[in-house]
Design goal:
This protein has 191 residues and is of the alpha+beta class. The protein is built from four helices and six strands, in the order H-H-H-E-E-E-E-E-E-H.
Length: 191
C-alpha cells in the first residue's frame, strides 16, 4: 500500500507540475503567503478553547472566501475554525481512487507577536548570516541553520526582527491554496 501511495503521489506531483507550467495558478504561493502573514493568528496559551484566539477566525474566513472564489465545492468552517472544501476528481469513477487531504494550521506561537508583521525578502541570497534589520540582535546564523548553505541564489523571506513571521504554517496554507488552484483547473480536464 505504501509503494502505491508513493507512486500515486509522485504521479500527481508530476502531473500538477506539468499542468501548472501551462496553466499557472491565479496567484503565486509567495503572494498568498505574504498576505496570510499579515493576519495575526497568535495562539493564546491555556485559553481552554479552539481556536485559542478569536483573531484566528479572520484567516479562516479569508480562506473560506478564497476557496469559494477558486470554485472549491462544499466549503465550510467548523465551530473550531477548521476550513474544509472539496476539489472534485476528473476520473469517470472517482470512487475507485483514494481521496487526498492537505492539512495546515493557521495559529502561530503564543511566545512572539504575530501583529503588524513586516516581511523582508532577501533576494538572491548569497550566503552568510542574515541580520534582521529592525532588531539587529536577531540573527539567523549559518552555524545554527546549516540549510542556508543550500539556499544560495534563492529568495529568503524573514520578518524584520520585531515580530514572528508565522511561516509555520502559513507557508503550508499558501502552498495548499496554490495546489488547490492548480488541481481545480486539472479537475476540468477529464482523463
Amino acid at each position: 500500500m505504501n509503494k502505491i501511495f508513493v507512486v500515486f503521489s509522485l504521479a500527481l506531483l508530476f502531473a500538477v507540475s506539468a499542468f501548472a507550467q501551462t496553466n499557472p495558478p491565479v496567484e503565486t504561493a509567495m503572494s498568498r503567503f505574504l498576505r496570510y502573514i499579515k493576519i495575526d493568528t497568535q495562539a493564546v496559551e491555556e485559553a481552554g478553547k479552539v481556536p485559542s484566539s478569536d483573531k484566528q477566525w479572520n484567516l479562516a474566513r479569508l480562506l473560506e472566501k478564497e476557496l469559494k472564489d477558486l470554485g472549491v465545492q462544499n466549503v465550510r468552517i467548523s465551530e473550531h475554525a477548521i476550513v474544509y472544501g472539496t476539489v472534485p476528481g476528473n476520473l469517470p469513477d472517482n470512487s475507485k481512487v483514494p481521496t487526498i487531504g492537505f492539512i495546515a494550521h493557521m495559529d502561530t506561537s503564543p511566545a512572539v507577536s504575530g501583529a503588524n508583521v513586516n516581511a523582508i525578502i532577501h533576494k538572491n541570497y548569497q550566503g552568510g548570516d542574515i541580520v534582521l534589520p529592525n532588531d539587529k540582535t536577531q540573527i539567523i546564523t549559518v552555524e545554527k541553520n546549516p540549510a542556508l548553505k543550500e539556499l544560495i541564489g534563492d529568495d529568503i523571506i524573514t520578518a524584520d526582527g520585531t515580530t514572528l513571521l508565522g511561516s509555520d504554517d502559513k507557508s503550508g496554507i499558501a502552498e495548499t491554496m496554490t495546489m488547490i488552484d492548480i488541481l481545480g483547473k486539472l479537475s476540468l480536464i477529464h482523463i
